[in-house]
Each structure stands twice: as structure tokens, then as C-alpha cells.
Specification:
The chain is an all-beta fold. The protein has one domain: GroES chaperonin (10 Kd Chaperonin, Protein Cpn10, Chain O, Roll), CATH 2.30.33.40. A 7-stranded antiparallel β-sheet has the order 6-7-1-4-5-8-9, with no helix packed on it. Strands 2-3 form a two-stranded antiparallel sheet.
């Protein structure tokens, strides 16, 4: 990874989801600005606050999809990350905002 780029993979549960009434909402459905969580797989040499293994919260509008060896991944800039969930953040929530 170069500069401030982060390679992440969304979990399978981020795709389709169910409403509180039990209605299945497909991953392609447009919903109001819903942020997504993904696991960090690689970081560039200028990334300061995110480490491999962290979970990051980001806007789906700020991502670029890439396919490597038949797998779908997302490429983000560090500045597009809204929050980081990591074990090393001990301030009650485990979130770095």
C-alpha cells in the first residue's frame, strides 16, 4: 500500500440486512447515508492512526472497489475513515473518533 491508503474488506453481514419488521433489505438498496464497518488488511507507510486488524467506519461514497485474486476489497484514504475500533483503545468504548 502506498502513502495514506488503507485496504479493507467488508464483512458478509454488511451486505443484505433485515429491518426491525423482518423485511429483507438488499445490499444494492439506496438508504440514507449509512456508514459501513470493514476490517483493515493493509495500510500505507503514511497512515498514522489505523493498524492492520482494526475495524474502521467509513462512508460508502468514499470508497474504491478493487478485485485481487478473485476477492473484492475496498481502498480508502485515511482521511475518509470516521472511526477506528481497536483493542488498543481503552477509553471505555474501544473507539477512536
Amino acid at each position: 500500500m502506498l502513502h495514506d491508503r488503507i485496504l479493507v474488506k467488508e464483512s458478509a453481514e454488511e451486505g443484505e440486512r433485515r429491518s426491525s419488521g423482518g423485511i429483507l433489505i438488499p445490499a444494492t438498496a439506496q438508504v440514507a447515508k449509512r456508514l459501513s464497518w470493514a476490517e483493515v488488511l493493509a495500510v500505507g507507510n503514511h497512515v498514522r492512526t489505523v493498524q492492520v486488524g482494526d475495524r474502521v467506519l467509513f462512508s460508502p461514497d468514499d470508497r474504491h472497489e478493487v478485485e485481487l485474486a478473485g476477492e473484492q476489497y475496498l481502498l480508502l484514504r485515511e482521511r475518509d475513515v470516521h472511526a477506528v475500533a481497536a483493542e488498543r483503545n481503552d477509553a471505555n468504548t474501544g473507539l477512536y473518533l
